[in-house]
Write a structure and sequence with these properties.
This protein is α/β, with parallel strands linked by helices. Helix content is 39%, strand content 20%. The chain has a single domain, classed as 2-Layer Sandwich (Endonuclease, Chain A), CATH 3.30.870. β5 and β6 form a beta hairpin. The two termini are 29 Å apart.
Length: 196
């Protein structure tokens, strides 16, 4: 039943994204989010409106690294398919210079013992960060990504699409403005609901 709900949620997200892409007009070339997106153009395909796709798994890593280094504002990073306790001192959040960072994960990926390790590691590399673990029985949309709100109220989100059979086949997509704001607001509200 849970896999059916997940499949339906995934189909709804895909449909919403496709509609947004179809109806989006020429991108507004303004704000910090646009500047960061422009800086990433070598890792991305040619922009198609308000979104760009990554070309490789290596590009995904470089984009995440670049976002942590350049975002001035708030980042919510979701880890629903990979245990954040495994990141240790190599966690890319160590590059983020601003205080407002939340990592959102789930209990079936990060159990109680992993949560202690993940929290300790996270606070070691980024003071003031928050780790929030959503209870296992909850229903919500599980998308791994980075959801960024810049201090000028522009938005960027980077979604990671994992290839389950070969991580080298991982890809991603970046959105700006309206759809990025919707994703940010969704995960911000979810994080606030389960914040201790």
């Amino acid at each position: 039943m849970e896999s059916i709900i997940g499949a339906i949620a995934g189909a709804l997200i895909t449909a919403a994204v496709a509609l947004y892409i179809h109806f989006s007009g020429k991108p507004k070339q303004r704000g910090m989010a646009y500047k960061v997106l422009h800086d990433l153009k070598k890792q991305l395909e040619t922009p198609k409106g308000e979104y760009c796709r990554t070309k490789s798994a290596d590009d995904n890593y470089e984009i995440a690294q670049h976002l942590y280094k350049t975002v001035e504002g708030e980042i919510i990073a979701t880890e629903f398919h990979e245990n954040p306790a495994n990141y240790g001192e190599n966690d890319l959040v160590r590059l983020f210079r601003h205080r407002d960072f939340t990592r959102l994960t789930c209990e079936d990926v990060c159990n109680i013992s992993s949560r202690e390790i993940a929290t300790k590691n996270l606070l070691k590399v980024h003071k003031g960060a928050s780790l929030i673990v959503i209870p296992q029985a909850e229903k919500y949309v599980r998308v791994d990504g980075m959801f960024c709100r810049f201090r000028d109220e522009t938005y960027l989100c980077f979604l990671a699409f994992r290839n389950p059979s070969d991580p080298r086949g991982n890809r991603g997509i970046i959105f700006r403005e309206d759809i990025a704001e919707s994703f940010f607001d969704y995960y911000k509200e979810l994080a606030e609901r389960y914040r201790n």
